[in-house]
């Protein structure tokens, strides 16, 4: 307790007291169910009063639930002192989405006998209501497609057409779509700083995506004078959390690796990534300078006599062609980090690295490396070498400024340049090379607008991109571009019209420019026209969500899932083991970091001891247990099969049980994946046969 007196203040011992509700209801239901599954909803009423009461317990009607009629079921009952009684309903999930389950119990005004006692009516607290959320899923595998457009309206209306088409084989009723509008090209990222990717954040590199983008967002908001206390505090909170978590992955020698001291060595690329992020963040929160110095010193210890840097430690993203897996690109990345840290005058470390890159600049063939080096020499203010690197990019694209002519469709997410992952980074570095000079001409800004348009269209529903590094680099480039081209929205009306006649309308002005406005689109599939009228720019994103059965494997991983026992018996109704065997069969020697996501059957939960036990296996770096899902991080997978077991138990009985999935995918190549379904030994069909 805090006390203020006339002279000073003091702290007293805290006073403790317990509040207890003598009459209440507790509801038990699964975290989620699949549509058309039936489960038993249980509500237990507790009476800690000294008298008997007569209670009526009811389940409110809901669009998400269909309640089976129950002849002979009683929902009015006597409840005497220190007694509890459970009421139940057989419920079938009918509508997708998150809905509320509402259960109420009321002490009735009654003077009937409850056993040998007369029921009383409590003077206070006669009713208790519990509202719990229930997620109804369509089953199968969720897929999302986005269409992004940045529309700038002046005197004349500007339009864009959106086609929401569902592929064949979509699970019935799973198609749904949303449209969101915000008056800022950085708006989606601003709203989703906590989750720019639909991916786990369980290792040192993935954690940095929770940290670095906040820096670019704050820099952008300050330059455009849009930094509100709310957004600033949110960004700083994420940065503080990310900073503290990142230190968990530091080695004693100052380097960093994906899993910290669980790895044998630090990693040069990740260490540079962390050093540049910490250096940029030091303007906004306290960063111990020693951490940056330790990282830079370790990088210097791994600089070769040529000035280039050697690759140390395991580089998990081994699929980048011409990316950071070769000496020149790695050196360019580290040099960019050192220049962004303003270490140009720190001995000869940067000068030697630039000399190495300059010698290599005439022979480099990788578009990725050319783009990255062009950005490096822009930072180093060596405009001659920068221009030598940028000119071939223009020529290769077929026309000045037309870097995207190699794309099959400028507005598609098809591969561009070397592969789908590095293309985003490549385009972001080209953009950074053009707009990071001390003075950027209007002509150069106009020439880069095509890149911005393409990058914008590659964004996911959360404002990020495919993976960690491309998200960080692309957001850095977009934020810098947005700051150069920022205009306050005076007033824009956005209309989203379907050909069937439905219409959504949004209004954006300087007062709500950073507010994300969102609405559902009713016609799916459907054709829509987006029109912006007024004076200002708006970022419009339509997202199509749907579920499909597990797709066929692309022969990258082999996955086998079996239950033990396979046949139903008495014990298997409550407990069984899930045996998983997986191996990599792709073109490379091994995969990158591989993630295994095991979704739980409705009503089942994993035994945490069995999951934790997996971390003793050589390739398993980490495990996580989330509601309804277990995630296992593997250092890599090769041709040798890896087998493991997870034990699960039933918490709530569910009938008509639908299958759950096990997914294995390469973190850096999400397209390299395999999904398979499994069911409980005593699923509904087996239970019926077993009971006959």
Structure description:
The protein contains 16 helices and 30 strands. The chain folds into 4 domains: 23-137, Immunoglobulins (Immunoglobulin-like, Sandwich), CATH 2.60.40.10; 140-183 and 489-549, Sandwich (Jelly Rolls); 185-470, Glycosyltransferase (Alpha/alpha barrel); 557-691, Sandwich (Immunoglobulin-like). The longest helix has 18 residues, at 229-246. It is of the alpha+beta class and 692 residues long. Strands 14, 15, 16, 17, 18, 19 and 20 form a 7-stranded antiparallel beta sheet that branches. Strands 3, 5, 7, 9 and 28 form a 5-stranded antiparallel beta sheet that branches. Strands 4-13-10-6-8 form a 5-stranded mixed beta sheet, with no helix packed on it. A hairpin with a 2-residue loop joins β25 (620-626) and β26. The termini are far apart.
Mean pLDDT across residues: 85
CATH class of the largest domain: Mainly Alpha
Quaternary organisation: single chain
End-to-end separation in angstroms reads 66 Å
> What is the beta-strand fraction?
25-35%
Over all CA atoms, what is the radius of gyration? 30 Å
Q: Biggest sheet: strands, sense, closure?
A: 7 strands, antiparallel
CATH topology of the largest domain: Glycosyltransferase
Low-confidence stretches: 318-325, 398-402, 405-419, 685-692
Inertia-based shape: globular
Beta strands, count? 30
Number of helices: 16
* Whole-number tally of structural domains: 4
Pairing-aware structural class of the strands and helices? Answer: alpha+beta
Helix content: 25-40%
Instruction: Using the 3D structure, state the CATH architecture of the largest domain.
Output: Alpha/alpha barrel
């Amino acid at each position: 307790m805090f006390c203020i007196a006339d002279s000073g203040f003091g702290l007293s011992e805290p006073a403790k007291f317990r509040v207890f509700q003598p009459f209440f209801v507790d509801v038990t239901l699964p975290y989620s169910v699949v549509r058309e599954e039936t489960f038993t909803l249980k509500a237990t009423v507790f009476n800690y009063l000294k008298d008997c009461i007569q209670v009526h317990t009811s389940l409110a009607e809901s669009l998400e639930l269909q309640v089976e009629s129950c002849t002979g079921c009683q929902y009015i009952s006597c409840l005497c002192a220190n007694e509890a009684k459970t009421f139940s309903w057989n419920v079938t999930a009918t509508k997708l989405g998150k809905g509320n389950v509402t259960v109420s119990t009321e002490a009735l005004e009654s003077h009937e006998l409850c056993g040998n006692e007369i029921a009383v009516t409590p003077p206070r607290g006669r009713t208790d209501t519990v509202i719990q959320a229930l997620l109804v899923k369509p089953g199968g595998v969720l897929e999302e497609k986005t269409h992004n457009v940045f529309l700038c309206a002046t005197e004349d209306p500007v339009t864009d057409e959106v086609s929401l088409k569902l592929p064949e084989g979509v699970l019935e009723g799973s198609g749904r779509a949303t449209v969101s509008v915000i008056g800022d090209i950085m708006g989606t990222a601003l709203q989703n700083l906590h989750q720019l990717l639909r991916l786990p954040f369980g290792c040192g590199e993935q954690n940095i995506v929770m940290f670095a983008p906040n820096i670019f967002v704050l820099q952008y908001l300050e330059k455009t004078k849009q930094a509100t206390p709310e957004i600033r505090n949110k960004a700083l909170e994420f940065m503080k959390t990310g900073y503290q978590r990142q230190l968990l992955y530091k080695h004693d020698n100052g380097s960093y690796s994906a899993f910290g001291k669980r790895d044998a060595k630090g990693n040069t690329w990740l260490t540079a990534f962390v050093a540049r992020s910490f250096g940029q963040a030091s303007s906004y929160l306290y960063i111990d300078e020693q951490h940056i110095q330790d990282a830079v010193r370790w990088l210097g210890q791994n600089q070769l006599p040529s000035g280039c840097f050697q690759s140390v430690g395991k580089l998990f993203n081994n699929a980048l062609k011409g990316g950071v897996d070769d000496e020149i690109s790695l050196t360019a990345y580290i040099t960019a980090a050192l220049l962004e840290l303003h270490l140009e005058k720190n001995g000869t470390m940067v000068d030697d690295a630039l000399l190495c890159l300059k010698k290599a600049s005439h022979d480099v063939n990788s578009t990725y490396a050319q783009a990255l080096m062009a950005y490096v020499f822009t930072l180093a203010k060596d405009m001659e070498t920068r221009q030598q690197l940028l000119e071939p990019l223009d020529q290769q694209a077929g026309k000045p400024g037309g870097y995207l002519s190699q794309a099959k469709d400028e507005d598609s997410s098809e591969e561009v340049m070397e592969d789908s992952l590095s293309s985003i980074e490549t385009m972001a570095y080209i953009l950074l090379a053009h707009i990071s000079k001390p003075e950027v001409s209007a002509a150069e800004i106009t020439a880069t607008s095509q890149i911005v348009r393409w990058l914008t269209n590659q964004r996911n529903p959360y404002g990020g991109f495919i993976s960690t590094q491309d998200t960080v680099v692309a957001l850095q480039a977009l934020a810098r571009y947005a700051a150069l081209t920022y205009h306050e929205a005076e007033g824009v009306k956005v209309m989203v019209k379907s050909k069937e006649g439905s219409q959504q309308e949004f209004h954006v002005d300087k007062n709500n420019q950073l507010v994300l406005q969102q609405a559902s689109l009713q016609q799916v599939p459907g054709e829509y026209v987006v029109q912006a009228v007024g004076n200002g720019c708006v970022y419009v994103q339509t997202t199509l969500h749907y579920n499909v059965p597990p797709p066929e494997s692309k022969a990258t991983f082999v996955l086998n899932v079996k239950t033990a026992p396979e046949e139903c018996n008495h014990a298997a109704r409550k407990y069984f083991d899930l045996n998983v065997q997986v191996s990599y069969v792709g073109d490379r020697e091994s995969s990158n970091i591989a993630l295994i996501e095991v979704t739980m059957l409705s009503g089942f939960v994993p035994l945490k001891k069995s999951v934790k036990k997996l971390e003793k296996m050589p390739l398993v770096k980490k495990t996580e247990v989330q509601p309804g899902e277990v995630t296992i991080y593997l250092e890599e997978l090769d041709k040798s099969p890896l087998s493991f077991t997870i034990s699960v138990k039933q918490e709530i009985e569910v009938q008509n049980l639908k299958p759950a999935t096990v997914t294995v995918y390469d973190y850096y190549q999400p397209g390299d994946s395999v999904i398979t379904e499994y069911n409980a030994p005593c699923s509904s069909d087996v239970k019926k046969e077993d009971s006959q």
